[in-house]
Every structure is written in structure tokens, then in C-alpha cells.
Design goal:
The chain is mainly alpha-helical. The protein has 6 helices and 2 strands; from the N terminus they run αββααααα. The longest helix has about 30 residues.
Length: about 140
């Protein structure tokens, strides 16, 4: 049975097990941060119809250690992140909107490419609005004859 405690802490032994996994970026008593590689793999497999628990197990994580809330919370936050158009990073706090980079969308999983295109579209719309405001301000400053 997978534990469903909301704020369960990892034991030192569990932290060692989690840290040994190649997909773990950081782990402490309260949280685990997954590598970008795992997030991309998770999205790809999730898109193929695998459940969150199946994906974690196939990547070497013990669902009993992580707990139901962490597993499903991770999946929910990752979906929200992709839907919002923010870039995937290893640390959620660093997932701020950045200027789009030249990306080959054909080499990405479909959900990620759509997310990247949405992010780029949002960024370009913001740039257009900024340019409009600058143009209006510039026109207001010019003397009229």
C-alpha cells in the first residue's frame, strides 16, 4: 500500500536510496527534485498512456517511499507547468518565462513541442504589446505641426 501522508518526511535511509537514482537531482528530508531528463521521460510515457505510478516504478523509484501525494502531486504540477507554457527545469522556482531559443520542434515529444510553441507565442505577443506602447509614447513626444 502506498502511503498517503500529506507531509511525510524521508528517513536517512530513504534519502540514500532516492539519491542513488540517476533521475534524482536533489533530495532532502521534505522533498525530492527530479532531473529534467526524468520530467521529459515522464511526459513522454504519460502521453503514451502509462500511469504515474508505473512511470516512477519503471524509472527505479519505490512508490512506497515517495508516497501517493508526492507522485500524483508531481504529475499534476508537471502538467500545469507544461499547460502554462513555462519551460521545464530541474527546479520549479527557476521556471520563469525566458526569451524563446531557436528550437527544432520536430525533435521534441508532441506535448513538449506544443508547450514550447505556446511559450514562444506568449513571449512574442508580449514583445508586440511592448513595441506598441513604445510607439505610442514616441508619437506623443513628437511635436505636431
Amino acid at each position: 500500500m502506498i502511503q498517503s501522508h500529506k507531509y511525510s518526511l524521508f528517513t536517512p535511509e530513504q534519502m540514500d536510496i532516492l539519491a542513488a537514482n540517476k533521475f534524482t537531482a536533489k533530495v532532502n528530508r521534505r522533498q525530492i527534485i527530479f532531473k529534467l531528463e526524468f520530467k521529459n521521460l515522464f511526459l513522454s510515457r504519460y502521453e503514451q498512456g502509462y500511469t504515474s505510478v508505473e512511470i516512477f516504478e519503471s524509472c527505479g523509484y519505490d512508490p512506497k517511499i515517495l508516497g501517493r501525494n508526492r507522485i500524483y502531486g508531481f504529475a499534476r504540477r508537471l502538467r500545469e507547468l507544461v499547460e502554462s507554457g513555462r519551460p521545464l527545469t530541474e527546479d520549479y522556482s527557476k521556471a520563469l518565462a525566458k526569451a524563446p531559443v531557436n528550437i527544432d520542434y520536430n525533435t521534441m515529444p508532441s506535448q513538449l513541442s506544443v508547450s514550447a510553441m505556446q511559450r514562444e507565442l506568449i513571449y512574442l505577443r508580449q514583445q508586440v504589446e511592448f513595441l506598441k506602447k513604445i510607439t505610442v509614447l514616441d508619437n506623443e513626444r513628437k511635436p505636431r505641426n
